[in-house]
Amino acid sequence: MNTTILSLLKCPICGATMTEDTIGRVCRCTGTRVHSYDFARSGYLNLTRPGDGEGDAKEAVRARKLFLDAGYYAPLANTVNDLLSALGAETVLDAGCGEGYYTNRMTSERDVFGVDLSRAGIDTAAKYAKQHQTQAAFAVGSIFQLPVADQTFDTVTNLFAPCSEAEFTRVLKPGGCLILVGAGECHLFGLKEKIYENPYLNPGRADLPTQMQPESHQRLNYRIQVKGREEIEALFSMTPYYWRTSKTDRAKLTDLEELETEVDFDIFLFRKGQ
Ligand SMILES: C[S@@+](CC[C@H](N)C(=O)[O-])C[C@H]1O[C@@H](n2cnc3c(N)ncnc32)[C@H](O)[C@@H]1O
Question: Is 229 exposed, middle or buried (CB count within 10 Å of its CB: 0-12, 13-18, 19+)?
Answer without folding.
Answer: middle
